[in-house]
Amino acid sequence: MKALLLALAACTEPMPIDDMTCPPEGTLLTYDNFGADFMASHCNSCHSTGKSGAPRAYRFDTQDEVLAHKDRIFVRAAGPNLTMPPGPNDPPQAARDQLAEWLACGAP
Ligand code: HEC
Atom 33, ligand 1: which residue's CA is nearest? Predict the structure, then answer.
């Protein structure tokens, strides 16, 4: 039983941003063509000034705010990490993969 619990813990361990490498050719994704829309569509119904659904310290209204929290945004929502948003309105996997690339490349 203990071994099973440990195994479960290991496979639900989130992937950290350092495990994702920016492609050698860089990314075509930018805040303007991807990041702003991703955050607005999938996160900022809670993580926005004036909204009360998420902790105040985690506002994602601007590129600077996203940059300030990029490691945690990655751990909660990018690539295989699925714990944000909470609830049923998940972004498509392709969008999570793009989020992973964009953040790993420094969220340009
Ligand atoms: C329905 C409301 C809601 C939506 C939508 C939402 N969040 Fe959250 N978020 C929360 C709440 C509530 C917390 C505090 C509880 C927790 O950490 O699970 C939180 C906490 C966080 C934290 C801080 C805690 C940590 O693990 O560092 C991050 C980062 C985060 N969310 C990222 C995101 C991202 C990225 C998205 C969009 C993909 C998103 N959230 C969408 C409600 C939401």
Answer: 84
- Ligand 1 centre to CA of 25 (Å) is 31
Site of tokens 């049923």? 88
- Nearest-CA neighbor of 66 among 35, 92, 93? 35
Residue 48 has pLDDT above 80, yes or no: yes
**Ligand 1 midpoint to CA 37 (Å):** 16
pLDDT band for position 89 (50/70/90)? confident
Distance CA 66, CA 69 (A): 5
Q: Is the pLDDT of residue 7 over 90?
A: no
